[in-house]
Design goal:
The complex is a heterodimer.
Chain A (H helix, E strand, L loop, with lengths): L2 E12 L2 E7 L2 E3 L3 E5 L6 H8 L7 E6 L8 H7 E4 L11 H11 L4 H14 L15 H13 L5 E5 L7 H16 L3 E5 L3 H7 L2 E6 L2 E7 H7 L6 H9 L13
Parallel strand pairs in A: 4-8, 4-9, 6-7, 7-8
Antiparallel strand pairs in A: 1-2, 1-3, 1-5, 9-10
Chain B lengths: L1 H5 L7 H40 L6 H23 L8 H4 L6 H10 L5 H19 L3 H33 L2 H25 L19 H12 L2 H13 L3 H31 L25 H15 L2 H23 L3 E4 L2 E4 H16 L1 H4 L9 H7 L4 H30 L5 H28 L17 H28 L5 H36 L2
Antiparallel strand pairs in B: 1-2
């Protein structure tokens, strides 16, 4: 099985706090990998390590067959990232943002313009193409960030909470785009709190809790292993220990 | 605070702890200085009050008090403008709490008591009354105290009204940015006005002072009339009358102050209500300018470095702070050009005297270069979330640094050329060789300052708001200082070489040759410094990503 992402003992410490504790990820090429975990479990730290924003404290990684620590530029040429903070220049317009990305990737101007036009069209941002990002709503920023990630035609997409804070229409557009990307042989690594979406879209999932990878594999296999008819939510809560939390009745409400 | 800063658990490494501690030092020093300042001002007030009670109505101490209180009034109005947007209270948030609006207004107004100028005014006003009491004027002291208290209520009202009006204005981002830009331009010009209007500055070319010409009578009369209704002036008049035992006049002035306080708080409450009632609109959407021009590649740079450079230039063109950098030479030229015009082609700075357009060009272009420091010395963090985009992209460290250096250069190349060109056209004069030396000197300075800017920006990144006009848009203190020092150090060789050519060799033609040769050396030194900058940037990438 060809792997798009592979980590061995990936660890990241912040002082004495271990945010990511020796995880072994295996993301098959062409898969839709949902990376789940409760708040503070280490999802964003893991994605930051994989995309080169953070240096791991230990372990090794391979992204699309290349060690990103040894050759970060080569890896970054082949991946697209929608980070948590969306990473957009406030003072560029939507069009300028896409052309900026194209220039950085060395894409010629004619191709860049054509791709930017297509992406703005698909994302329903055509009318806002000459508007500064600072005047964009959250949903528009999210769509533009995804467009910027897709523009260089990457083979692997990292999406950190792409469905958070956006309306149903934008959510549908993003889902359609992701399906289209997958059908062309791309790989998606996604973190999300919205389990229904992950359940519907993902082929594989990994669950992280307190920095450790507690489950990984094909979604149907994991569900079958957890008991027939078990939903992803039940499986997830069981894996991260949510059921063990003491219940307070809050009778006073 | 300092210990907390040094031990701050959120900081990632020793350098960041040091960086935070330096940033905290400013407020700590200000707080420490506030104590002796309050004591000194209290002493000044007591002495002035005592002198007044002794019927010394024209006491110099009382005059000092007058100017201090005038400054307090002015600061109450302009103070809210200097706060970074993030530091301004958002009254809309307070609406979520079950508190009546009138109480919210009182709470908002009361926060003005914490402003340093109010903290300094209180001891002055109370001790002035105490001094009068000690000087044997108990009724005068009582009236002065009453006037002082009403004056403070007025200052609080002014601050509250100014804050609410500012909220209403900046709610539309575009209008807010325009206001910020206007203030950036107006404040330095206004501060230069006294020197520009000073009749003593008008000299003949021979240096002999011409007979003094008075300020126009209409200006003087308008200023007198306007000053008469300034609250601090009314307070001073009331206190003077109270000390001179003209009690009815003093009481009438206190009544005037009280009326003024009522009106101001009425307006303040109405403006505050408007802030609470009006929706949080953000103004019309704006488009970028010159579409197409920005996608061109700068010759000599890689595609990525060129994109970074043009993004940096656009940041400057589209933020108030950046625009102020680009407009600064125009301001410098107008202010100093007017001074020179009044001085018949010369301008004096104490014992230092500049003559001719050459000096103006040198001065204004050097100032343009210096004004770039807030952006250049914080060149990575000014991108905000865009920095993450840069760090995630397949840009090499060298391309990132090269792009930033060229981008910062592009920001100031226009203003510098404008200063030099306009000075030459308007004033002219001097040797062509020396005119040619100015751009060469600036290039040599920039070649050395650029790597220092990259290093300090990577070491001391600071999240800033380039829409703000105060410290909220300044680079980190350590970066700013390093920038200033590097500018001075880098500026010394071209100046010395020009002096060598003109004073030792007595050949002005040698000046551009010497400085051009120095540019080559500076380029070599700059290249070596960029090697260090690249290493530092590489080690600081993570800190920059987590800003």
């Amino acid at each position: 099985m060809e792997l798009a992402v592979e980590t061995r003992g990936l660890t990241r410490d912040f002082g004495s706090f271990r945010a990511v504790d020796g995880i072994d990820l295996q993301v098959p090429a062409g898969s839709f990998y949902g990376f789940l975990g409760p708040n503070g479990a280490g999802k964003s730290t893991t994605i930051k390590c994989l995309t080169g924003l953070l240096k791991p404290s230990g372990g090794s990684m391979t992204i699309l067959g290349t060690d990103p620590l040894a050759d970060p530029v080569s890896v970054k040429r082949r991946i697209g990232v929608v980070p948590e903070d969306l990473a957009l220049f406030d003072r560029l317009t939507a069009e300028e943002t896409l052309l900026f990305v194209a220039q950085i990737h060395g894409i010629d101007i004619a191709t860049a313009r054509a791709r930017a036009s297509d992406l703005l069209d698909v994302m329903d941002l055509k009318d806002a193409g000459t508007t500064l990002v600072t005047d964009f709503s959250h949903g528009m920023r999210k769509k533009l960030s995804l467009a910027a990630a897709l523009l260089p035609a990457p083979r692997l997409l990292f999406l950190d909470e792409p469905f958070e804070g956006i309306d149903a229409v934008a959510s549908r557009q993003i889902k359609d785009l992701m399906q289209s990307f997958l059908s062309r042989g791309g790989t998606i690594f996604l973190t999300s709190h919205i389990l229904e979406i992950v359940e519907r879209l993902s082929t594989h999932i990994g669950v992280i809790a307190r920095g450790k990878l507690v489950a990984q594999g094909r979604i149907d296999e994991l569900r079958a292993g957890g008991g027939i008819g078990k939903t992803l939510e039940e499986l997830f809560i069981g894996l991260v220990g949510g059921e063990a939390r003491p219940q307070t009745s809050l009778d006073w409400i | 605070m300092l210990v907390n800063a040094l031990e701050r658990t959120g900081s990632r490494d020793a350098l960041e702890r040091f960086s935070i501690a330096i940033e905290k030092l400013g407020p700590i020093l200000a707080a420490i200085l506030l104590i002796p300042s309050s004591l000194a001002i209290a002493g000044l007030g007591a002495a002035a009050g005592y002198a007044l009670a002794q019927q010394a109505t024209h006491s110099i101490l009382f005059e000092v008090c007058r100017y201090l209180l005038l400054a307090v009034t002015a600061l109450a109005i302009v103070g809210p403008l200097f706060l970074p947007a993030a530091d301004r209270t958002n009254p809309i948030r307070l609406l979520l709490l079950p508190i009546p609006r009138s109480v919210l207004y009182v709470a908002q107004s009361s926060s003005a008591f914490g402003d340093p100028w109010n903290l300094l005014a209180l001891p002055l006003l109370t001790c002035l009354a105490a001094g009068m009491l000690a000087g044997g004027e108990p009724l005068g002291a009582l009236l002065s105290l009453a006037a002082g208290l009403v004056f403070i209520v007025i200052v609080v009202g002014l601050a509250s009204l100014a804050t609410s009006v500012l909220h209403l204005l900046v709610r539309d981002r575009r209008r807010g940015e325009l206001i910020a830009l206007l203030f950036i331009i107006i404040i330095p010009v206004v501060s230069m006005l006294p020197a520009m209007l000073d009749p003593g500055s008008r000299r003949s070319r021979g240096g002999a002072a011409q007979p003094h010409t008075a300020v126009p009578s209409w200006l003087s009369a308008t200023a007198t009339r306007a000053l008469a209704v300034v609250p601090s002036q009314i307070y001073i008049a009331a206190t003077g009358n109270a000390a001179a035992r003209r009690y009815p006049a003093a009481a009438a002035q206190i009544g005037m102050l009280a009326t003024m306080a009522l009106v101001l708080h009425g307006l303040g409450a109405a403006a505050f209500k408007r802030v609470l009632d009006s929706p949080g609109s953000s103004g019309a959407r704006r488009g970028g300018s010159m579409p197409g021009a920005w996608s061109r590649r700068i010759p000599g740079l890689s595609s990525g470095a060129s994109a970074v450079a043009l993004a940096q230039l656009r940041l400057a063109l589209r933020t108030p702070r950046g625009r102020s950098i680009m407009l600064s030479p125009l301001i410098m030229f107008l202010v100093f050009g007017a001074m020179m015009y009044r001085g018949s082609g010369t301008m004096d700075f104490g014992h230092i005297r500049f003559g001719g357009g050459l000096s103006l060009a040198m001065f204004a272009s050097a100032m343009s270069l210096l004004s770039m420091l807030p952006i250049a010395m914080n060149q990575f963090a000014v991108d905000g979330a865009g920095l993450t985009m840069g760090l995630l992209s397949p840009l090499t460290d060298a391309d990132m640094l090269r792009g930033k250096a060229v981008g910062n250069g592009l920001i100031i190349v226009g203003p510098c050329l404008f200063s030099i060109g306009l000075s030459y056209l308007v004033f002219g004069g001097g040797s062509p060789a020396l005119w040619a030396s100015i751009p060469l000197g600036l290039i040599s300075i920039y070649l050395l300052v650029a790597p220092v800017a990259a290093i300090t920006s990577a070491m001391f990144p600071k999240v800033v708001d380039l829409n703000s006009i105060g410290r909220g848009s300044n680079a980190h203190g350590a970066s700013g200082l390093a920038g200033l020092l590097s500018f001075v150090v880098a500026g010394a060789p071209p100046v010395l070489l020009a002096l060598l050519a003109t004073r030792i060799f007595h050949r002005t033609a040698f000046a551009p040759l010497f400085i051009a040769a120095w540019c080559v050396v500076a380029y070599g030194i700059g290249r070596l410094m960029f090697v260090a900058a690249r290493r530092i940037f590489q080690t600081r990438r993570e800190n920059l990503a987590l800003l």
